[in-house]
Amino acid sequence: MRSLLAAILLPLLIAACGEPPPPHAELGKLVVVTREGPITYQLDGSGKASGFEHDLVALFAQELGVEARFIVAPDHAEIAAALASGRAHLAAAALAPMESDALRFSRPIRELQQLLVQHEDALPVDDAADLADRTVAVLAGSAQIEALARLQPRPEGMRVVELEGVGEMELLERVNARTAALAAIDSAHFDIGANFFPGLYAAFELPGNRPLAWAFPKGGEEALFQRAEAFIVRVRQDGTLDRLVDRYFGHTRRLNQNDTARFLEKMHAVLPRYRRHFIEAQDIYGIDWRLLAALAYQESHWDPLATSYTNVRGMMMLTEDTADRLRVTDRLDARQSILAGTRYLVELREQMPAEAREPDRTWLALAAYNLGMGHLNGARFIASLVKRDPNSWYEMKQVLPLLSRPEYYARLKSGAARGGEAVIMTENIRNYYDILQRYEKAAVSPQAFSMRSRPPM
To answer: Taking the complete model, does pTM exceed 0.85, yes or no?
Structure first.
């Protein structure tokens, strides 16, 4: 705990003479210091920003009637220095509340578990006693330092190494590469990282939950702090926070360790043969080639000769009717299948109502790719009966399984459907897309498609 406080307070003492920033309303912007990472803030290949905290802050700034401007710091110490020196109004950087003379923290936004993570080939750690004489890597200034200090009984000889200037994904990568034996990290980052590094697993849970909160400089704008408190209460109550959590984390536990390992193997061995066809489809239709590749993997595992018992065939598993309508002469030709499957996905997406915004618009189109538009429209009708939002993927993935229940499908012209399978398929594609975004470069094209920024068609 002493080292945690030092990492935060030292830069504050150095910068104690800093002046608070001008009020956000006067500036016309809310200046936010953050860290790079999947929970906080990241840029895609087209330079568009996203991230759970980025999106939440953007909603807060919209409520304030100002623009959100983000500055990126490498670690907790630099974040604290940015607040103390008056360069930022608040910090949204996967922070946990702590005692501080210089910072004040909002009420918790989310509660996360704290985990001890190791590689599957390492000497197993089952409880705290097994940490005797072992080394655990953590991020400098993180809440996991205090969690390790609270282990009872205290493991004799346990060493905690605090890493500066790295993020949670880099920490997990070190464990995966066996350059760090053990790491302590929060559950949200681990759930995401487990899809990138299938050899890792959570050995056990560390003491105490880890709240996620925003940090403000003491002596800063009191009105801004109170607005933030009220905003957090509102988004927790009205479902906004649940939808945002689902957008970034609702799909992360769908794949098991073997699923991820098999995907990564084929990504290296098989995908290079067909990458140019996916990029060509992006150039024509404007959908990120990595999303198309994720769809194709879910459909056929990138096997151009794949055939199902229902006679859907090829890389994108097209029905005979769909292939004929799209003028495909050979469903087993990889290029024809990829281009036609992409065009079909675009058609489905364009049929979504204008009220369906991205990325929900694309997730709904992917579900329709599996079910057919008739069944998706049937599910939208059911959504109206059970008072769910038919334009929200978060809501619709709870409605789609109802298509297999007689009391619901009896009301539909389209009849019964395996809506639960469409949910699983779409969530799997989201995971595969996340993995490809990490390991495969974006291909820039004039029609490049952004699910976070492009207006509905």
So the answer is: no
